[in-house]
Known about the structure:
The protein is of the alpha+beta class.
Amino acid sequence: MKKNLSLLFLFGIVVLSVGCNNDDDDTEVEALRSSVYELQATEGFNVTGTVTLTEGEDDSTTILVELVNSNTDEHPAYIRYNSGAQEGNIAITLKKCTCSIGETVVSTLDNGELIDYDGLLELGSYVSIHQSLEEMETIVSTVHIGDDH
């Protein structure tokens, strides 16, 4: 009987210690947001692809440009104010797309103003992909980005 009582006491302690586990590690981690936009070829060109904006934990945004049907030239890329039809000024100079890929981490506009993921979505802007460094006037692909696209 004494042995059974000891086992029952030990079992009770184990149950209480497991049941009283204080899980401070259950803090919910907010998932990083991402938006994908389909590049549209401009007249006379066949360059398409995607522009992906991914929210960073430090208020930065990673902008990944992936081109399809492009040559191996460096393609300058920009985020511009307004829509493609209005040919807006440059808001953010992106890294050139080399071998069809360009990735830029941004937290400021070219003028130094801070901008985060939400700010980019509210900017009312578009991405322009240019033919080459020698043919900056030729835009081969564009896409409007943001909440109202």
